[in-house]
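Researcher: Quick one. four chains, 226 residues in total.
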Amino acid sequence: MSDPLDAIFAALADPTRRAILSMLLEDDMAVTDVAAPFDMSLAAVSKHLVILTRAGLIAQEKRGRVKWCKLDPDAMRRASVWMQGFGQFEPVNLDAFERFLAAELGGEAQKAE
Amino acid sequence: MSDPLDAIFAALADPTRRAILSMLLEDDMAVTDVAAPFDMSLAAVSKHLVILTRAGLIAQEKRGRVKWCKLDPDAMRRASVWMQGFGQFEPVNLDAFERFLAAELGGEAQKAE
DNA sequence: CGGATCGTCAACCGGATGGTTGAATATGCG
DNA sequence: CGCATATTCAACCATCCGGTTGACGATCCG
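Model:
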């Protein structure tokens, strides 16, 4: 797996891991809390977190005996950029993007078109 | 693998399959021609194409004894939309986004910060 | 018809993946 | 100190994955 995209897409291919990422979107969490909603052992979730970390999708920081997990946007961005090359069919003007644009530019921004 | 995203991301996780998609970006191709540049058997490439097809990333159409492969943008777009949900926390740093911003606002845009 | 080309199928193999359990390693706390 | 909590490690297991080879079904063409 030399290409980092291999690890990134492989990490995203598992529904448990995608669910974890969604959870982390709302808040940073400790490993035990990440594992709570899943019907599997803590060790299994811990391994998922290792995979996400190696893919660069999350970062883990140990404070005391608790290891905190937070999203790391870089990897997702790289994957997104790669996919963007195929987006020529339908350019980037997704709803989320436009909403973001509006928020980012604030009220006084004048749209070009 | 009930969630279609499982199949899509799993398909994208393999470098051979991503290379195939890139090739198809330039032109529709027959299976044999898709296989040509790869150092593996035709059967192996054929299996990759099945995986890409099941993921909805490409479509295959048989004309005569030749099976043509073409990109199908829907699946990639679904994956992209899912990922877009993670772009909201630090979007301004994204290279692609900045390019998008620049293109969208044109030359006279003043950056907020 | 009969041979060549296109592509898949089937069986097989080694290695990766996703899960389990139980022991081990920190760290916090009374 | 000594116990509870947080997390990982190690071994193990079943299944999936990516590749191989050889046989097969289809289709074109001389």
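Residues 49 and 99 of chain A are 31 Å apart (CA to CA).
Researcher: Thanks, that's what I needed.
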